[in-house]
């Protein structure tokens, strides 16, 4: 089911009862973010060039064009055509300004690079929306809905194949190696993780983040309030992939760690509706 066919619950600060119409597809696929959700490995075979984001500026700007096309269609029925165009135009300018300063954490060699790019997308959109009087929660919902539409457009067998890869012994071994390497904190803007051995009952793959590059980025750019909503996209990916994610908290919610626990084919019961009520009064760690 495409996002255009969904009846979404109202979000704060916007007209109730509206529906998105014709959200642009494939921007996440083009940017590589859907695949990244399934891959817990460092990305082999690449060496990050100096100035990774500047060197690939045209591609990053092109990807964000697709994001903004979807964002404009999402915003228009909730605000107005004029406001939607103004917000996305402002966001494009902001993202282009942000691009050279996005921390280079190893470029395509780093499994987390796409998520840092996605954090910059959301930062630009949040700043532009706040400028027009819309709260960070709405920016979080916008990206969540666009991400949901991407997973809905992806063939189910492809998504499931991504999920199955998560539980392969080679993937688990590589995750363990990545977590150990991350403890060196070679790049202060990167993620830091700890591998958690499976218990054989409640989860098959586990890891904790003690530091989150996205949260660091949001804080550095004055939009920490959007961080908890950003994390909800993990549940969309896990549901599509059949990886059974459960998580009791995140750094973005003020928890000491983000505790990811995956179990093959377990139903994913956490989503926007279950998690957002838990955010009240909490600040990113």
Give a concise summary.
The chain has 285 residues and is mostly helical.
Describe the structure.
There is one protein chain. The chain has a 3-stranded antiparallel β-sheet with strand order 1-2-3. It has helices at 27-31, 33-38, 52-55, 57-75, 81-98, 113-131, 136-153, 156-166, 169-182, 213-220, 227-230, 233-241, 272-275; strands at 192-196, 205-211, 258-262. The model is unreliable at 1-49 (pLDDT under 50). The chain is mainly alpha-helical and 285 residues long. It starts with 26 loop residues before the first helix and ends in a 10-residue tail after the last helix. Helix content is 49%, strand content 6%. The chain contains 13 helices and 3 strands. It is globular, with a radius of gyration of 18 Å.
Give the integer mean of the pLDDT values.
85
Structural class: mainly alpha
Fraction of residues in H or I helices: 40-55%
H/E element order:
HHHHHHHHHEEHHHEH
Shape: globular
Biggest sheet: strand arrangement: 1-2-3
Rg from alpha-carbon coordinates: 18 Å
- The residue ranges in which pLDDT falls below 50 over 5 or more consecutive positions are 1-49
- Specify the number of helices: 13
Q: Strand-residue fraction?
A: 5-15%
> Major beta sheet, specifics?
3 strands, antiparallel
Tell me the distance between the termini.
36 Å
Number of strands: 3
């Amino acid at each position: 089911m495409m996002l255009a066919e969904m009846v979404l619950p109202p979000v704060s600060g916007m007209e109730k009862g509206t529906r998105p119409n014709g959200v642009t597809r494939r921007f996440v696929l083009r940017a590589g973010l859907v695949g990244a959700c399934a891959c817990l490995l460092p990305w082999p075979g690449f060496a990050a060039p100096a100035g990774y984001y500047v060197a690939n500026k045209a591609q990053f700007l092109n990807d964000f064009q697709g994001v903004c096309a979807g964002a404009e269609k999402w915003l228009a029925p909730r605000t107005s055509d004029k406001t939607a165009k103004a917000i996305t135009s402002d966001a494009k300018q902001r993202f282009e300004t942000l691009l050279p300063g996005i921390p280079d954490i190893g470029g395509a060699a780093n499994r987390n690079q796409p998520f840092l790019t996605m954090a910059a997308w959301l930062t630009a959109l949040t700043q532009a929306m706040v400028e027009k009087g819309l709260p960070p929660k709405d920016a979080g919902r916008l990206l969540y809905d666009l991400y949901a539409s991407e997973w809905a457009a992806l063939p189910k067998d492809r998504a499931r194949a991504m999920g199955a890869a998560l539980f392969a012994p080679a993937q688990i071994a590589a995750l363990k190696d990545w977590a150990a390497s991350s403890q060196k904190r070679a790049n202060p803007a990167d993620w830091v993780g700890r591998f958690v051995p499976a218990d054989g009952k409640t989860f098959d793959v586990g890891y904790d983040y003690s530091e989150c590059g996205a949260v660091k980025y949001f804080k550095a750019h004055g939009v920490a309030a959007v961080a908890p909503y950003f994390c909800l996209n993990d549940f969309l990916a896990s549901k599509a992939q059949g990886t059974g994610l459960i998580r009791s908290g995140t750094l973005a919610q003020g928890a000491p760690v983000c505790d990811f626990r995956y179990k093959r084919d377990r139903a994913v019961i956490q989503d926007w509706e279950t998690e957002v009520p838990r955010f009240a009064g909490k600040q990113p760690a």
